[in-house]
Design brief:
Elements: E1 3-6, H1 19-22, E2 25-37, E3 40-47, E4 56-59, E5 63-64, H2 66-79, H3 84-90, E6 100-102, E7 115-116, E8 121-122, E9 168-169, E10 194-199, E11 203-208, E12 217-220, E13 224-227, H4 228-240, E14 246-248, E15 261-264, E16 268-269, E17 276-277, E18 283-289, E19 299-304, E20 315-316, H5 326-329, E21 334-336, E22 347-349
Parallel strand pairs: 6-10, 7-16, 8-13, 9-18, 17-20
Antiparallel strand pairs: 1-2, 1-5, 2-3, 3-4, 10-11, 12-19, 13-15, 14-15, 18-19, 21-22
Length: 350
């Protein structure tokens, strides 16, 4: 069923390509999702004749497709899964804002055996870092000559400074500065409001419930820290099943060097476990040092690579190297990409 949405205001919608658009309205192929921001109900619309990159969020009062909206709401009630067990898993989360869960696609619930953790867990054969950081004596807030940070990585609002590409250094637990020190960002947790949402083609993903400004810390990638050998073994089994949650701690490696350790978030992780891939991601990942300076065991933190709108899915590039086909040369497993962006590579290598 197709219907139309009244054209109001300026821009944001596809350029007119048919008589309906020329008359001041666009043909809606489907309503894909909804989100409530304050008292406003917003709906994600798929336009007939346009790819998913042109999807737009429209307030309910701007819609003029009552039959399509009624069908969407009816189907949502019929397909809504019991997310109660999911919320019980999320009780362990220490996020600043409660995480919401939405599934209007199918009856799939929380991944079986998944446990929510707030920081990475060291497996027995991974050594604890033995290169502690040199604590600072700053008491009135750290400045550029602080021995911990050596540079101003964050602005006054805790956002990564534009142009900073190096690993991020934060004051640690033995430093004299307070918890409100401007260098303490990742360790203080994320203030982002998350919604874990079920998608028809991609499965579980994460959506921002409110706008996120570029440079904002979004989440840390946490899981079980394991050795390279264990990661190789698990990776073979996981890719055979068409999935992997392994993330090499290799941002200090160069050339053809391989990481000594990896983080596996398959059965233990936080909200980042549910982040999906995109060939045009809105997040980037940075190495972060807090308690120590061991380059083999840095932490991994996601930051907004650009301004992110409320209702937008949070994504990162699973395999940037596959831009040039490097994954195929390295023997990586090939998967079909479902991101649907204009720059979609169609396949990714993991």
């Amino acid at each position: 069923m197709s219907s139309s949405v009244v054209r109001r205001g300026r821009g944001g919608r596809p350029a007119a390509r048919d008589s309906a658009a020329a008359a001041g309205s666009y043909v809606v192929e489907a309503i894909l999702a909804d989100v409530t921001i304050g008292d406003v109900s917003m709906y994600e619309l798929k336009w007939e004749g346009y790819s998913s990159e042109h999807n737009r969020w429209v307030a309910e009062w701007d819609l003029s497709c009552p039959e399509l909206l009624a069908e969407y709401k009816r189907t949502k009630v019929e397909n809504t899964a019991d997310v109660g067990p999911f919320y019980r898993v999320l009780q362990a989360a220490k996020e600043l804002h409660p995480i919401t869960v939405t599934n209007t696609v199918d009856g799939v619930g929380c991944p079986e055996g998944f446990a929510y953790i707030n920081e990475s867990i060291y497996s027995d054969d991974v050594p604890r870092p033995c290169t502690p950081m040199f604590p600072c004596e700053c008491e009135d807030g750290c400045v550029t000559d602080c021995p911990c940070v050596r540079d101003r990585y964050y602005d006054d609002r805790g956002r990564v400074q534009v142009g900073i590409s190096a690993a991020l250094m934060e004051c640690g637990p033995t430093c004299r500065c307070s918890r409100t020190c401007s260098t303490r960002v990742v360790q203080n947790g994320s203030g982002v409001k998350f919604e874990i949402r079920r998608f028809a083609r991609k499965g579980w993903g994460v959506v921002a419930r409110e706008a996120i400004v570029r440079g904002t810390f979004v989440a840390e990638y946490v899981g079980e820290l394991i050795t390279f050998e264990e990661a190789e073994s698990r990776g073979l089994a996981d890719t055979a099943m068409g999935l992997t949650y392994l993330f090499d701690v290799d941002m200090a490696c160069s050339g053809g060097d391989t990481a000594d350790f990896s983080i596996d978030a398959k059965t233990q992780g936080n909200v980042s476990h549910f982040f999906n891939h995109s060939c045009m991601p809105n997040m980037e990942i940075r190495p972060v040092y807090i308690e120590h300076r061991d380059p083999r065991l840095h932490r991994l933190a996601f930051f907004a690579a650009r301004d992110i709108a409320a209702g937008e899915e949070l994504t990162f590039d699973y395999s940037p190297a596959s831009n040039d086909g490097a994954g195929a040369c390295d023997g990586g497993a090939m998967f079909a990409c479902q991101c649907g962006t204009a720059a979609c590579r169609k396949t990714i290598f993991l």
